[in-house]
Amino acid sequence: MEERQPLILDRLEKQGACSFDELSKLLGVSTMTIRRDVDGMARRGAVIRIVGGVQKADAPSYLYETAVHSRLAVQRESKRAIARKALELVVSQHTIFLDGSTTCLELAKLLANERKGLTIVTNSALACLELGKNTENVIIGIGGQFDANSLSYVGPQAEDWAKTLFVDLAFVSTKGFLPSKGTYESFMPTFRIKQIIAQQCVELALLVDHSKFGQRALSKVLDISQIHAVITDDQAPPAAVAALKAGGRKVHIATVGEHTRPACENRRPACHPQVVADFSEGKLSGGTPAKTTLGRVVLPNPEP
User: Which CATH number is 4-60 given?
Assistant: First the structure.
């Protein structure tokens, strides 16, 4: 262990986090040996043991991911606008992937309300709940160890399952984005799924609001060469947008403020704006009963 510890620390210094499998191959020992080494180092405070691997112990706090609950309201209007723009890329019969980001959660709400005939793969429990409201799409949930912070399924089982899936279009978001280099994140179990899907998809679209540009996190996740399209908002740095286009990336700009109402407000045609479903009581506004079927609310036709 004394011989391997400096090598493990050196690797973490370079890339922030490593999986047990990666260290096993690097050092030529079994994953069980690596786990024992990491356990001993973690007890001394030299590293932090995480699901499926290890990360640096002395990184500044701003490099780490925050819980999904605290991210739901951050840049919400930008996320909704970006999700609406991303929806334009989705056509019937597509097989797509959504990660566990809050931006992809906004996209999941739109897909459930405005698209059918899709096969949608995700490791996000929240996205599954939203997508399940539409029974005309096939939803595939990647299972594994449940992570309470991201509300996603992670770990070796989830990664192995992800390796068997191939999708037409993958939508992912990120904590930090350097247009000349790629994406950066802090929590290895969730970003390992993205790295695997990036190798399995025909096209990958990055959903990233303006606040993520120029930000770096603990580990590099995707190289810019793996990103085919970038969907951002109209406050993104113009120089960065120009650089992305010059580098061959497709860039889609969403205008914040246009069509950014929550998806649940768009379920009925504009000609009947008075019909609003009250899910908690199973009634419509005015007390009209609403019939529920497999998580969907079937609204009776309004009076002419």
Answer: 1.10.10.10
